[in-house]
Design brief:
The structure holds two protein chains of two kinds. Chain A is mainly alpha-helical. Chain A has helices spanning 21-30, 34-38, 42-62, 80-84, 93-103, 138-146, 148-173, 186-202; strands at residues 2-3, 8-11, 14-17, 72-73, 76-77. Classes of the chains: A mainly alpha, B mainly alpha.
């Protein structure tokens, strides 16, 4: 890979105009593949969109729609959300739900008000407070209801978020370099020598 | 857990693995190339490598369990 102008790169013999890189990265974060569509890389955009959103939706369904929520309450520190948020727009409703339940929860008792009603029928809403380890609460009910699906759904959505970070990088800076283990074939060696030559020319 | 018990639950759990490995392999391939043929080649290699790696780990666990 080499650059012959600020936003144009040459990869696999193809010249790619990355256009406005920060905007492409932002679009890629908001909707997986959207950054590539913006850059005119339609095949890759469609590929990323299908792969990542499929994994996301499948995980969401496996977990009964409860695997994505934002919470940092005692007993329920949902660190997975930081990784799930890599998918961008699809994870944002959880933030609104988190803010709503925060305002509806008594700080002293840690108990959610009985008047609390989540948006959109509870879509991406955190569990009712309090959530305590080894006690019956809404989280344990979700686990009981969906079994391994809840766990797998969490991982599917986490992995979808992580994969989109690679896609965001690809939209911003072009394809990553091929690891050493992938350079054994002659064609890869040729690419490598070509990139070295062009790299020298660029410097 | 005995190896035969592990193998008995494996088929249903493998269904969880399939969509995940497809998504991961395609994204890995897609973020390393621009040419469609090279993307598909890299996808196949990634899927094969991860599957092989997990198979080796599975065999090692089975052997360790058998030895204990």
């Amino acid at each position: 890979m080499t650059a012959d102008s600020k936003n144009t790169i040459l990869v696999d013999g193809e010249r790619i105009d990355l256009r406005n890189r920060p905007l492409a990265a932002l679009l890629a974060w908001l909707i997986p593949g959207a950054g590539h569509f913006y850059q005119g890389r339609y095949t890759k955009g469609a590929l990323f969109m299908v792969c990542i959103l499929s994994a996301w939706v499948l995980g969401f369904a496996l977990g009964g729609g409860h695997v994505v929520y934002a919470s940092w309450a005692p007993g329920d520190k949902r660190w997975h959300y930081f990784l799930q948020a890599g998918v961008g727009g699809a994870a944002l409703p959880a933030l609104l739900q988190a803010n709503l339940i925060k305002t509806a929860t008594d700080k002293k008792t840690g108990r959610t008000s009985e008047d609390y009603e989540p948006y959109w029928g509870g879509f991406m809403a955190p569990p009712l407070r309090p959530v305590r380890e080894s006690q019956a609460d809404e989280v344990s009910a979700w686990y009981a209801r969906h079994g391994a699906g809840y766990e797998m759904g969490t991982w599917y959505t986490v992995i979808a978020g992580l994969l989109n970070i690679l896609v965001i990088y690809d939209a911003y800076g072009g394809p990553l370099s091929v690891p050493i283990s992938g350079r054994k074939k002659e064609s890869d060696d040729e690419d490598e020598s070509a990139s070295e030559e062009t790299g020298k020319a660029a410097t | 857990m005995l190896p035969d018990q592990m193998l008995s639950i494996a088929p249903s759990y493998l269904l969880y693995y399939l969509p995940l490995i497809i998504a991961i392999a395609f994204v890995f391939g897609g973020t390393r190339h621009e040419n469609t043929t090279l993307i598909l080649q890299h996808t196949w290699q990634t899927g094969r490598w991860i599957t092989g790696f997990m198979a080796v780990i599975f065999i090692v666990i089975c052997i360790l369990d058998w030895l204990m």
